[in-house]
Amino acid sequence: MTSTPPKTGANAPVEHFENPNARWRVITASLAGTSIEFYDFYIYATAASLVFPHLFFPSDDPTTALLASFAVFGVAFIARPVGSVLFGHFGDRIGRKGTLVATLLTMGIATFLVGLLPTATTPGWEFWAPFLLVVMRFCQGLGLGGEWSGAALLATENAPANKRAIYGTFPQLGAPIGFILGNTLFVVLSATMSDETFMAWGWRIPFLISAVLVILGLWVRFSLLETPAFQKVMDEKKVVTVPLVQVFKTNWLEIILGTFIMLATYVLFYLMTAFTLTFGTKQTTEQAAAAGKLGDDPAAYVPGLGYHREEFLIMLIVAVVFFGIFTLVSGPLAERFGRRKMLLWTTGAILVFGFVMTPLLGAGFIGVQSMLILGMSLMGLTFGPMAVILPELFPANVRYTGSAIAYNLSSVLGAAIAPSIFIALWAMADGSPIYVGLYLAGSAVLTFVALLFTRETRDDTYVTNVS
C-alpha cells in the first residue's frame, strides 16, 4: 500500500510555521536557478537543430546527421533519472539548499565545456569530439535531473498552504525565461554574423556566457537557509537513511501516476521547441530544388516550412512570451479550482491541439504564428502546476526523491525519444506533421487517465507531513 499525506479538508486552517527565508529571496533563488538551467538546456536544443548536425555528425545525408544530433540530445534524458536518484538522495538526507548548489554547478560546468570542445571536422577529433559531446550532455542531464525538484521544493516548502501553487509557478517561469535568453542570443548572433562565422565559432558564445549566469545563481542560492519542511524533518529525526528504497516501498503508486501526469507536458514541450524549430527552418521542396539540395532521390526529400533561422526564432520567442504569461496564470487557477481539475481541462485542450496544429501550420505565417502561440499558451497552463502537484504527492522526508524520480522518468518517456520520433513521423508523412500531432494527442490521453486516478492534493498538509 502507498502512504498518503493526511487530508485536512477544504476548510482546514492554514499551516503555521516559522520561515527564515524572505519571500523575495525564495522567489529569486528558485526562479534564477531554473532560468539558468533551462537556458543551458535550450541553447543545446537550439544547437542540436542548427549547428551540431554539421559540426559533430557530418554526413552526406542531412536527415541522418539530424537524427544523430537528436540522439545525443536524448542522452540527457537518460541521465536525468540517474540525477534524480543521486541528488534526490542528498536532498532528502542533507537538505535542499546544498543539493541545489551542486546541481547548478554540475550542469553549468558541463555547458561551459561544450563551448570549448573541438568539432568532428577537426583533424584527429573525428571520434573524440562526438564522444565528449555525449559526456557533457550526460552531465547536463545529471544536473537537471536534481535541479527541478529542488527548485520546486524551495518554492513550495517556503509557501503558505493556500499559496503553494502560486509560489510553484516561479521555478516554472524559469523555462520561458531561459528560452527567451538563449534564443534571443542566437538571434542576435545570427543577425550580426555571417553563416560561416556563426558556424566557425559564433555558436560557442551562448555556452561560454553560461558561466556568468551560473555565478549569479550560486550567489543567490548561498544566501538561503533550509526550508521549514526539511528543517522539521531534521528536528523530528525523521530523515530517511535510503530515500530511494523508502519512496518505492511506500509511494510507488504516486511515482507511476506522477510520471504519466507529466507525460503530455513533456511531449508538448519538445514538440514546441526542438521539433518546430527543425520543421520551421527546413527548406521547402522548391527552395531545396533551387539551391540544388534535393540530392539523387528528390522523392526522398523531407520538406519543411522554409523560414530563415532568425525569422523563426523570433516567432518562437513571441510565442514563448505567452508561455510565461500562462505559467503565471496557472498558479491562481490551480489554487482556486484544484490541481487535478485544472489539469484535466488543460490536458483535454492539449488533445484537441494535437488535431488542429497541422491545419494551422499549413495556413501561412498567421497560421504558423497562431499555432506557436496556442501551443505555448497550453504549455504554460500544463507546466505551471507541475511544481506543486508532483511534490504534493509525497511526504516531506522522501519528497525530493519521489518528485524528482516521477518528473525525470517522465522525461525518458515523453522527451528522450520524442524529437527522434517526431523526425521519423514527419518523414513518414512526406513532410506533413499530422502524425506528430496524433502522437501528442495520444500522450494527452495517457496523462488524462493518470489524472483521473489521482486525488486532489490542494487541501493536504504539506510542511508538517512526513511518512
From TrEMBL:
<feature type="transmembrane region" description="Helical">
    <location>
        <begin position="406"/>
        <end position="428"/>
    </location>
</feature>
<dbReference type="InterPro" id="IPR011701">
    <property type="entry name" value="MFS"/>
</dbReference>
<comment type="function">
    <text>May be a proton symporter involved in the uptake of osmolytes such as proline and glycine betaine.</text>
</comment>
<feature type="transmembrane region" description="Helical">
    <location>
        <begin position="100"/>
        <end position="121"/>
    </location>
</feature>
<dbReference type="GO" id="GO:0015293">
    <property type="term" value="F:symporter activity"/>
</dbReference>
<keyword id="KW-0472">Membrane</keyword>
<dbReference type="InterPro" id="IPR005829">
    <property type="entry name" value="Sugar_transporter_CS"/>
</dbReference>
<protein>
    <recommendedName>
        <fullName>Putative proline/betaine transporter</fullName>
    </recommendedName>
</protein>
<feature type="transmembrane region" description="Helical">
    <location>
        <begin position="166"/>
        <end position="189"/>
    </location>
</feature>
<feature type="transmembrane region" description="Helical">
    <location>
        <begin position="343"/>
        <end position="366"/>
    </location>
</feature>
<keyword id="KW-0813">Transport</keyword>
<feature type="transmembrane region" description="Helical">
    <location>
        <begin position="372"/>
        <end position="394"/>
    </location>
</feature>
<keyword id="KW-0812">Transmembrane</keyword>
<feature type="transmembrane region" description="Helical">
    <location>
        <begin position="434"/>
        <end position="453"/>
    </location>
</feature>
<feature type="transmembrane region" description="Helical">
    <location>
        <begin position="127"/>
        <end position="154"/>
    </location>
</feature>
<dbReference type="InterPro" id="IPR036259">
    <property type="entry name" value="MFS_trans_sf"/>
</dbReference>
<dbReference type="Pfam" id="PF07690">
    <property type="entry name" value="MFS_1"/>
</dbReference>
<feature type="transmembrane region" description="Helical">
    <location>
        <begin position="252"/>
        <end position="272"/>
    </location>
</feature>
<keyword id="KW-1003">Cell membrane</keyword>
<feature type="domain" description="Major facilitator superfamily (MFS) profile">
    <location>
        <begin position="26"/>
        <end position="459"/>
    </location>
</feature>
<dbReference type="GO" id="GO:0005886">
    <property type="term" value="C:plasma membrane"/>
</dbReference>
<keyword id="KW-1133">Transmembrane helix</keyword>
<comment type="similarity">
    <text>Belongs to the major facilitator superfamily. Metabolite:H+ Symporter (MHS) family (TC 2.A.1.6) family.</text>
</comment>
<feature type="transmembrane region" description="Helical">
    <location>
        <begin position="65"/>
        <end position="88"/>
    </location>
</feature>
<keyword id="KW-0769">Symport</keyword>
<feature type="transmembrane region" description="Helical">
    <location>
        <begin position="201"/>
        <end position="222"/>
    </location>
</feature>
<dbReference type="InterPro" id="IPR020846">
    <property type="entry name" value="MFS_dom"/>
</dbReference>
<feature type="transmembrane region" description="Helical">
    <location>
        <begin position="312"/>
        <end position="331"/>
    </location>
</feature>
